[in-house]
Amino acid sequence: QQEKEDLQGKLKLREHLSQTAGKSDAIPSPSKNTDLEMKQLQCKLKSSNNEITKQSATIKSLKKEVQEKEERIRALHAKISRLERDLNMKRHLVEDLRSRLKANQENEKTSNETLESLERKVKALAEDCSNKKTSIDSLKQRLNVATKEKSQYEQMYHKAKDDLEKKELKLTNLESKMIETECAMTELETTASQQLHGLAKQSGHALETLQKKLLLTNDKIEEFMTFVKALTRELQHSVQELRTKIKQAKKMGEVRACKKSLSQESVQLAASILNVSTTDLEEILEVEDDEETAKAKMEFEKDKEWLQYIQKLIEAQFPFASYLMDAILEKLNEKKKLVEEYSSLVKHTV
């Protein structure tokens, strides 16, 4: 508005200047400076007119905006008044709700206390109920057992009653028979006493013969046991002898091989160095290896176990013949193998 007022003042000045310029046409021509100033002012006027038109357009648009904004402000004022009413209503509602909340909280506290007390009571009642249920179940079980026992006893009683009646009948029959048998017994006793004397004599002779047969069988068993033990020992002894013979044959072969490799002079020289005879040197050469000694120990332990096994078989209950036969055959096969080995060694050494 201030710019508008300034521009209007300038316009009025220019109009005044133009009027004065028209009047000055009658007056003798002024100086060149004034002309220039006039031209400049006219240019400024034109530019100011353009600016005024622009400003008036902007003013109109601004007026419209101001009107729109005023309408908006009115609408906003209406809204604010409504919102204030709503706010007041809501405040009243909030205050009511707070008062109700306080009352509800107080009620809730009391209700919680009552609930806790009720829960305790419910727990106590539940425990009582569970205890009572268990007691009722146990009582039911006892009742069932008692009813079963009662039915069983009743059945037993009826059975016993029936048996008693039957036995009473049997007793009467037996008593009648007993009288008859007593009469027969007296007759039998007389005949039996006579027959018993004869049987006693016969049984005495039979017992004597049985005792003699038993003694003979015991003697035979002992003889058989001694025979088996002697046989097993002989077998074991012969196997051991064969093993020693095989060892000796092997050593002889080794010694002969050594003697072949060593000359008689070298043997004598070694004997003179060691200050021993040639036979002692041969014995030194025939020292057993650790492996051979370990093998011999193993074989000795196996023989020992075999003898113990046969002893167990003999002492065991019947039947043991097949097991005994298998054990002896096993040892015989071993002996056969050793004999074959020994004969092959003897052939090679010869």
From TrEMBL:
> Superkingdom of this entry's organism?
Eukaryota
- Spell out the Basic and acidic residues composition-biased ranges: 1-17
Disordered, as annotated region: 1-36
One cellular component term (GO) for this entry is: centriole
Set out the biological process GO terms recorded for this chain's protein: centriole-centriole cohesion
By what name is this protein known?
CNTLN protein
Identify the species of origin.
Spizaetus tyrannus (black hawk-eagle)
